[in-house]
Structures are given as C-alpha cells and as structure tokens.
Amino acid sequence: KQWYQRRVAITAGVWGGVGLNFFICGFCFLWVNVAKTIVNAMWSGEWVKTQLNLGEMVTGCYITAAVLVSFGAIYGFTSPTQIMLLCIIEPFMMLINEHIVLYDIHVKDAGGSLVVHAFGAYFGIAVAIGMGIKASRLPSEHRTTTYFSDMGAMIGSVVLWMFWPSFNGATFASDPLLQGRIVLNTYLAIAASCATAFATSSLAHRGKFEMIEIQNSTLSGGVMIGMICPFHLEPWIPVLIGKHRHSRFQSFIVSD
C-alpha cells in the first residue's frame, strides 16, 4: 500500500494537479445535472427533467467547486479511478446536504461558505481518513513544492482572487443592486485578506514571503464573507473579516 501511494504521488507530480483538476471540472459539470435530477426526485417523489439554463450552470459550478476542494485533501494519494468515484459520489452528498441546510434549516448561504467550501473540506478529510492516508508515508521530496508548482499555483490564486466576487454574486443576476452589494463586500474582504497575508508572512519570515501561505490566505476572506455578503454591512465589517481570516495559524498546523 505504501508503494502504491508513493507511485501514485510520483505519477501525479508529472502530469499533476492541473490535469486532474481539468478532468474533475469537465466530468463533474456534466454529472451534476444527472445527480440533481435524481436528488430532486428523492425529495419531490416524482421524476422531473432538469431544465438547463444559466442558473443551473452556476449551481453546477458550485458543486464542482466542492469536489475540487475535497480533492485537495487527497491529491497525490489516489488513482484516476478513485478520483472518478469521488466525482460520482460527492455531488449526491452535497446536494442532500444543501437541501437540508437551505430548505430545512433555512440557513442563508449566498456564497456557499457552508454548503460548498466547508462541506468540500470536511468531505475531503473524511475520505482521507477512510482511506488511511498519511503524508508521513511519502518521502520528504514528494511533500514539498517546487518553484514551478508554486508559480502555477500563484497564477491560479490570482485568477481566483479576481473572479471571487462574481463567484459569490453569480446567483443574484436578477437583482443588480443586491449583486453590486455582494461584489463590494466580497472585494473588501479579499483585499483585506490579501494585504494582511503579505504583511503577516513578511513579518513571520523576516522580510520574505512564503508562497503557500500567500496562496491560501489571500482567498480566505472571500470564503468567510460568503454567508453574509448580501447583507447591508458597514465597510469596516468585511475588511475586519478579511483581515482576521487569513490562514497563518492554519499554516502552522499543516506544517506541524
């Protein structure tokens, strides 16, 4: 088993994260439309065709995002076949969880902080525990990043940072005023988390930036503000949320 995980990690390092994420995006976006039809039939008791439109495309992207979050917990330890199983099973679980959270408990979660990001993270951790995954089983050279991997991840972080306001406000296209408020609150939060992440990393590393911390921390404000981004907030509130949500403390835990 250790040899298998080591072999998978080496193979993933070659054609790696970009290719696997590309596969998940394409496969999940198609499969979630089938999953939505089945789950809706479970709740309503009758089969109704899913009408494909812009709104359904957006929800499909949200579900795919949750799978991508879960994949981050098991990347380097799974085969493509196991990843495909994850793509098939998790959308069902997420849709059931989403129905309970939004329609039974009546929680407001405009940006998917709970039903997308939190669910994807904990689902990925559960899969990792169930598979008995331990990073210590891999050689140390396969548990570190390289210049090229950090550069690619940083480009991806910049793209996510630019488009995160539209991610939070995509389902509110029918209300331009509310959508504008969501974009503003989200942008204030991610701007604050970005500035704080660079400042904190520089202080902690004596004038140098730690790329892994920057990649994670600059986006954390957009995740946390997701639940309350439609609310009418004073500007200092999203700034404070973004400022205190950066992942410096989490980085210590992961490193340990």
Radius of gyration: 19 Å
Number of DSSP E strands: 0
User: Mean pLDDT, as a whole number?
Assistant: 82
Question: Which of globular, elongated, flat, extended, rod-shaped describes the shape?
Answer: globular
Low-confidence runs: 1-14, 247-256
The tally of helices reads 9
Task: Identify the quaternary structure here.
Answer: single chain
How far is it from the N-terminal to the C-terminal residue, by CA?
Answer: 24 Å
Give a brief outline of the structure.
The chain is mostly helical. The protein has helices spanning 2-44, 54-74, 80-104, 113-131, 147-169, 176-204, 211-224, 236-244, 248-255.
Explained architecture:
The chain has 256 residues and is mainly alpha-helical. 75% of the residues lie in helices and 0% in strands. The chain is built from 9 helices and no strands. It is globular. The protein starts with a helix and ends with a helix. Mean pLDDT is 82; it is low at 1-14 and 247-256.
Please give the structural blueprint.
Blueprint: H1 2-44, H2 54-74, H3 80-104, H4 113-131, H5 147-169, H6 176-204, H7 211-224, H8 236-244, H9 248-255
